[in-house]
Write a structure and sequence with these properties.
The protein has nine helices and seven strands; from the N terminus they run βαβαβαβαβαβααβαα. The protein has a seven-stranded parallel β-sheet, sandwiched between helices. The longest helix is centred in the middle third of the chain and has 29 residues. Strand 2, helix 2 and strand 3 form a beta-alpha-beta unit. Helices cover about 45% and strands about 15% of the residues.
Length: about 270
């Protein structure tokens, strides 16, 4: 896939899961990588693996999506080193496993701060450079819960719905600037997302739920995401039978509501 060779790609949430799989897949295709996450040790581990896999270059840049005020400075420092970013993959985020009634408002705020405001802050900080160069592709990993809600994920779903509203609007605004916007909506993917998900009091769940354990391998998802980027898709859905939820929600909402009541989502 020569499309990604020598492209400068910035990936958040690169220290594990989908972000790690995307980093390695892009390394194998000869991309220049900027890898970001809160856990610098794990991100450096992924960076070393990417060098070994054939990345044109690797720059590890620690970034905490919850620290919004620090993001413009990190972007400015990074652009002074790399010049421009061809593709931004907004992948960093956290999930939730708790009933809405049991979830503190502070946890609700944290999910929005990381998943929504952090992603928006990074995108806005990088956007002027993309516009100046009249090129760029903004890819945001949301979720199928960005299309429909699910029990135990009220604020997580809200943060993902918010991303769809923002990036759909941004796509229309950037049409003349020739900057593409792609929304990727995965279903159940076999990562540590459920282990790291926040419970009602803000502590981590610490265990993998059955649906996640049986989900798609992140390496397979990474390949599909790169295909969607190369094809310039505006939106793409990946997973198992849970993808059908999008169509059921649209055409048979009452029936879909009944299915959700029986779904193993925790």
């Amino acid at each position: 896939m020569d499309f990604f060779r020598n492209k400068r790609v910035w990936i958040t949430g690169a220290s594990s899961g989908i972000g790690e799989a995307l980093s390695l897949a892009l390394a194998e295709r000869g991309a220049h990588l900027i890898l970001s996450a809160r856990n610098e040790v794990e991100t450096n581990r992924v960076g070393a693996a990417c060098v070994a896999a054939g990345a044109a270059s690797v720059l590890v840049r620690r970034l905490d999506l919850e620290q919004h005020d620090a993001i413009p400075g990190i972007v400015d420092t990074t652009l002074k080193q790399v010049g421009k970013v061809d593709i931004l993959i907004n992948n960093g985020g956290i999930s939730q496993r708790a009933l809405a009634l049991d979830t503190s408002l502070e946890v609700d705020k944290k999910l929005m701060a990381v998943n929504y405001f952090g992603t928006v802050a990074l995108t806005k900080a990088l956007l002027p450079n993309m516009i100046m160069h009249q090129l760029g592709h903004i890819v945001t990993i949301t979720s199928l819960t960005g299309k429909f809600g699910s029990p135990y994920r009220s604020s997580y779903a809200a943060s993902k719905h918010a991303l769809h509203g923002f990036f759909d609007s941004l796509r229309a605004e950037l049409h003349e600037a020739q900057i593409k916007v792609t929304l990727i909506c995965p279903g159940f993917i076999r990562t540590n997302v459920s282990k790291n998900a926040l419970t009602g009091d803000g502590s981590k769940l610490g265990s993998m739920d059955e649906a996640t354990e049986k989900g798609m391998a992140p390496e397979r998802l990474a390949y599909k995401i790169l295909q969607a980027i190369q094809e310039g898709k505006q939106e793409a859905y990946f997973g198992g039978k849970e993808v059908l939820g999008i169509h059921l929600k649209r055409f048979f909402p009452a029936y879909f509501s009944k299915i959700l009541l029986k779904a193993k989502v925790r």
